[in-house]
Amino acid sequence: MFLLPVSWSFFLLLLVDVSLASPTAKASIQARASITALTSAQIAAYKPYTYYASTAYCAPSTTINWSCGSNCEANPSFVPVASGGDGDGTQYWFVGYDATLKSVIVSHQGTDTSEILSVITDIEFSQKAIDTTLFTGVSSSVKVHTGFEDEQAKTASAVLSAVKTTMSAHSTTTITTVGHSLGAAISLLDALYLSIQIPSATTNFIGYGLPRVGNQAFADLMDSKFPNLAHINNKEDMVPIVPGELLGYVHPSGEKHILDNSTWVACPGQDNDSTECSTGDVPTIFNGDIDDHIGPYDGVSMGC
Ligand SMILES: *[C@@H]1O[C@H](CO)[C@@H](O)[C@H](O)[C@H]1NC(C)=O
Ligand SMILES: *[C@@H]1O[C@H](CO)[C@@H](O)[C@H](O)[C@H]1NC(C)=O
Ligand SMILES: *[C@@H]1O[C@H](CO)[C@@H](O)[C@H](O)[C@H]1NC(C)=O
């Protein structure tokens, strides 16, 4: 554990959440499904995507020829198509084809926990209507975190072009976007962006330690477009509970929560407040454990 260089606004945000935290009306709109444990086969099926999320922490010079070491070796059938970013102003990213999954893979690099908390609580943490230049036709009621949208916009056209190249080279119409932390937020927006720009494709998102990215209309839109979306949260990681619900942020459905005994459970609905799911298990970041952010996710800790 170490002290986080989090900003003032972040603590302000927390205090608001603490003082106003109470059961809300949203419970009534949650799905009436039960919280169920995943089988070991279901957990294992996520493993290649977990490695792809982790691989985005590797430098582009090593993902472009798949020479990044153990992360790359974990997915030996991958064919890289494009890599980019500088890991500073622009997070690393890569695009290519997995011949076993028969899917285009898009992955974006995340950040360490203290950095993601600063990004989230930056002056730019306010929501704005989604940019309809990139997200053509999306309603102006759909609002997203300004900082996350800015990050996604930096690589949007390069990623789109690489995805189109990969689709035609490998005759596939399946796209999976993955990522951890900030990388998950970027890839969640990429999933929406790619599904709009390439409507003939079947797109899905699998993310790890995903912060909240947008408002209720955004979460509802994601639920309607991506029924198989999955965001996997490890134990008491606090990143998935920020920015706070009281600031108008809502997760799409599809949470998988790793319990303290390493059981994975599927949490129905958006922000299920059961203590078996992140929102209920980590009511404020004071209940969180920063060390849980990087994993392990079924044995995989994020990083190159
Ligand atoms: C959470 O999941 C349970 C199933 O165990 C469900 O009954 C409940 O409505 C869901 N939503 C909330 C907000 O807890
Ligand atoms: C991959 O590219 C890097 C940087 O260009 C180079 O140093 C390395 O030898 C290459 N590795 C393989 C396996 O091609
Ligand atoms: C793990 O913990 C959950 C919640 O406390 C419990 O329901 C489940 O039975 C436990 N599973 C194992 C394998 O211990």
Short précis:
It catalyses: a diacylglycerol + H2O = a monoacylglycerol + a fatty acid + H(+); a monoacylglycerol + H2O = glycerol + a fatty acid + H(+). By secondary structure, this protein is α/β, with parallel strands linked by helices. It is built from nine helices and eleven strands.
Could you characterize what this model shows?
The chain is α/β, with parallel strands linked by helices. It has one domain: Alpha/Beta hydrolase fold, catalytic domain (Rossmann fold), CATH 3.40.50. It has a nine-stranded mixed β-sheet with strand order 1-11-10-9-8-7-4-3-2, with helices on both faces. It has a two-stranded antiparallel sheet with strand order 5-6. The N terminus is likely disordered. One 2-acetamido-2-deoxy-beta-D-glucopyranose (NAG) binds next to loops.
Q: Globular, elongated, flat, extended or rod-shaped: what is the shape?
A: globular
Q: Gyration radius, to the nearest Å? A: 18 Å
Q: If strands are numbered along the chain, what order do they take across the biggest sheet?
A: 1-11-10-9-8-7-4-3-2
Instruction: Name the CATH architecture.
Output: 3-Layer(aba) Sandwich
Briefly note the CATH topology name. Answer: Rossmann fold
The overall number of domains is 1
Query: How far do the termini sit from each other?
Result: 21 Å
> What is the name of the CATH class?
Alpha Beta
Give the cofactors and ligands. Answer: 2-acetamido-2-deoxy-beta-D-glucopyranose
- Segments where pLDDT lies below 50 for 5+ residues? 1-31
Strand content: 15-25%
Structural class: alpha/beta
Helix content: 25-40%
Organism: Lentinula raphanica
Signal peptide: 1-21
Family: Belongs to the AB hydrolase superfamily. Lipase family. Class 3 subfamily.
Catalytic activity: a diacylglycerol + H2O = a monoacylglycerol + a fatty acid + H(+); a monoacylglycerol + H2O = glycerol + a fatty acid + H(+)
